Amino acid sequence: xxxxxxxFAKVLRMLATVYLExxxxxxxxxxxxxxxxxxxxxxxPSGICLELKILLKCGVTWNTMSREERLDCPExxxxxxxxxELLLQRGKELLAKQKIENLITGCRNGKQLSSETLDQLHLxxxxxxxxxxxxxxxxxxxxxxxxxxxxxxxxQLDKNLGKLQRNRASCYLQLQQMEMAxxxxxxxxxxxxxxxxxxxSIYKIAVLENxxxxxxxxxxxxxxxxxxxxxxYHAFFPLKVLSDFYACKRRRxxxxxxxxxxxxxxxxxxxxxxxECEGYPPLMKDFFVLSYQLSEYCTSDVPGLxxxxxxxxxxxxxxxxxxxxxxxxxxxxxxxxxxIRHTVSSKDPTDIIMLxxxxxxxxxxxDPKLETVLESVLELPQIEPKALQTIxxxxxxxxxxxxFLCKKxxxxxxxxLRKCQDTDIVQCSxxxxxxxxxxxxxGVLEMESQVLEEAWSYYEDTLVPISFQxxxxxxxxxLWLLTKAWNTGILLYSINKYTEAEKWCGLGMSFLxxxxxxxxxxxxxxxxxxxxxxxxxxRLYASSF
Length: 545
Fold this sequence. Notes:
By secondary structure, the protein is an all-alpha fold. The chain has a domain at 427-545. The chain contains 26 helices and no strands. The chain is elongated and about 125 Å long.
């Protein structure tokens, strides 16, 4: 299809050339129609040049085009626009501005451009204005925006006009022309009153004019409009500027509408919006940061401090969620943890959660300071065994691998559980399960006596609650202990360590009578295997003598 378009455009250019060379005055319309169709099918430099050549041959000059009665003619409008573009590309801005001013004069005299040409001209003017604004040439940017404004009719209502007026207001603000900025933003509000960026511009002007109460009301109204979850991204902006405003004014007393209950409203709004962004951690984190920044201007009593720490905790949680996607966010958790340690002195339940977040982040990054976090946890008053079990789990969660810290945390957790008045046997069994799992050798090369002794000691710990608290130890755990001990004995037998093999298989047999309802299913099978093992060992001992 593309090849056909090129060929068809080439044929049309040739046809337009024929009309041009034959009799341009007689076949003017046909020549223009042919070249217009050609350029619509496939744009080529030769087609553009030919179109300009035909227009010039028809007696249309650059100086008379903008004064032509038929400015709405698409061909003439395109030619004028193309001429302005070429002048700008070649750096002849003064001449381009002169052509634009001629067009403005023509439009004011009723010689309107076609809607398509006018849209393209607006895009061209806005592009120039934006580039000048980015280069901090605000006066020049304003001039290009003003050119665009001159093509709108007085009293016209259009959202693009609202955006244009906002851009003009931004230029005036940079030029510190507050009165002109106010006029521009009023026009923007007339054209597009519910636009958040219009309200944001009004807020900026209110802040710069030190009209604090008006600014607070505007922020309040914006948040009332953009509270639904689908508009959370928009609601972020008024909260951000409000927080920045307080940061600038923090040494001044809060008066008027900016009383503490209003601050609490903004704090609560940021908090609630953060919770609604649960599925989008980056925005969730930003809202919690804003919530914390706003809480800085509330009271500093104990509930207030806990609220601030909770904000920091939620920021850390968001960073942790982001860190699971990209490890860069883990570093922010370290900064938050240090900040809490050095600035917030109140002790509350958030301390342990923050330390758990820090432990996970350092574990994932294989950080050498990981053990110091565990020590900080142990220094906390009334530490819960569950927290230590969580640390043990995090120490072994891929890509982390810290068996030493895992076992240390589990041993302390087990010790704390035993000190409780009502010992939780199930939790004890879980700790012992993990300790045995970590201690038992997994292969022939790991069958060292020191390793086996450690595992044996944990097995002995299990026998106390199993023997003296009948029925309280989970049967599934007892079966697991039996199986593990038996398999260890068989592995030792395979490497000719017969004494140790008999010892471990005997240990496995000792759990058989505690199986309860599962005993019948396993007793005959285990006893037969143990009998066979004893016979084999007896023959081996006999042959050795």
